[in-house]
Amino acid sequence: MNPKELVCREFVELVSDYLEDALSPADKARFEKHLRECDGCERYLDQMRITIESVGSLSVEKMQPETMDEFLHAFRDWHSES
Ligand SMILES: [Zn+2]
């Protein structure tokens, strides 16, 4: 498995905790480091923020499987272009 993709998967798993400010300082630092290095995940986080604002609550976990799937597809496409 591509290690970069593994990290992105982890990022996706941590997004809801990050938005709830529930990450440990160490995880938060890793999360934000990845965020700076990965355009795909930065865009994903923006999308999650917008979604949460429009829904008005943190129902991230319910919508996550589909969104995550779309994201990972988008990420693979984005990668194969570069
Ligand atoms: Zn990423």
Oligomer: single chain
Query: How many domains, in number, for the residues?
Result: 1
What is the number of E strands?
0
Order of helices and strands: HHHH
* Structural Rg: 12 Å
Protein described:
The protein is 84% helix and 0% strand. It has 82 residues and is mainly alpha-helical. The protein has one domain (3-81). Helix 1 packs across helix 2 (25-37), helix 2 (25-37) crosses helix 3 and helix 3 (39-55) packs antiparallel against helix 4 (60-81). It is globular. The model has no long low-confidence stretch (mean pLDDT 78). Zinc ion binds next to helix 1 and helix 3.
Secondary-structure topology with pairs:
Elements: H1 3-19, H2 25-37, H3 39-55, H4 60-81
Helix pairs in contact: 1-2, 1-3, 1-4, 2-3, 3-4
Bound molecules: zinc ion (ZN).
Notable traits:
82 residues; mainly alpha; 4 helices; globular; binds zinc ion
Quick summary of this structure?
The chain has helices spanning 3-19, 25-37, 39-55, 60-81. It is mainly alpha-helical and 82 residues long.
